[in-house]
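Progress against Task 2.4 (sequence-to-structure conversion) is shown through the following example record, which the project officer requested during the mid-term review.
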Amino acid sequence: MSSPTHSSSHSAPFDLSAWRNVPTVLMVLGGAGALLGAFLDVKHAAFSYLTAYMFFLSFGLGGLILTILHHLFDASWSVPVRRINEHLANLLPMLALLFLPIIINVLTAGNDNLIYHWMVLIKEGKPDHAVTAKYPLFTVNSFLAAWVFCGVVWTVLARGLRKHSLEQDKTGSIECTRAMRRYSAAGVFLFAITTTAAAIMWMKALQHEWFSTMYGVYYFAGSTWTTIATIYFLTWLLQRQGPLREVVKYKTFYFLGSLLFAFTVFYAYVTFFQYFIIWNANMPEETFFYVAREHGVWFWVSMVVIFGHFFGPFLTLLRIDVKLMPVIMIPLVAWVWLMHYVDMTFNIMPIMFPDGPHFHWLDFACLAFIGGLLARIFLKSLNSHPIFPQKDPRFAEAMDIHVPEGEVLKAAARGVKATTGGKH
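Structure tokens generated for the chain above:
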């Protein structure tokens, strides 16, 4: 599929040299600001940090699930951008470590500064019915175990998939492809379990009385939506700069735009039915979550989520040619990032500020610290490995190149010979 509207491959590359040190500056200044905030107001700093953390965790989880889905569906169009997904997924080990400030809050903060109210109830020996009914899920040991389990699973999956991907670049062995598919077959279930556990234990548990069986899917939908937009931007930038110019086709942008459109609808579907089921049941232990978010300025934030997170992107992406127009899609990517952060704020901050959001320098400091650190890691990975898979079996198909069957069999035989050292 081609279109004259997408001309980035013929545009002059940007001069990015002036931006080279931006991640380091953000990391240093943001880290200093976050530390200062922790001394001035521990509880506010913890809430700001958790909001920024859940926002950036989305990128790692989105990269992991898109890598897994690539292998499960044996896709060809996504081969040129697979390595970007892998690098995003490999932010997860660091993201697991970046949860340490919340762990420190859980283990050391006094009752007035603990951000999880159910832990205060347990420390005071006065657990309410919700804590008792959800035992042993809501215990400090379970909280810590969930963190360790998620970190280990994410690290094993992300590192394992990229390890075999890089090995495939060297050997082209079919065993690398099979190994990645095995990782993905098990990984899709482990991803569902760990993503749900993280969303429930780290975000939903801020209001432990609330019930929602769709919350893990809700967080997954928003995370994948945000990551698809990010991959669109990175692909466009790397194509314009040159590294992906010869391998990224118009169809790559079209399919990424179509996926973004699909997850715009999927997110809205999950969000609406979560609200609708709770509203229809009209049970106080469920409805209070939304009642609190219809109070004060939070009502208008909810309107921003409804119209900005769904209707704006949905109506923008309806036209088929828009997906190939960077002049529209790149500003839309920035809008997607903003809406996802607003969504995380809408979920987390009403506990701290019941009357409405209080935008504070701490929020920006935490965003700068985590974002700067992750950007450094991502760029280092990007520059340390081939920018796209070199010997993926679907690479020719991704390039719209027809390879005769006989040539495919010869290439497969060479791959087997290279793997076995010539022994059959």
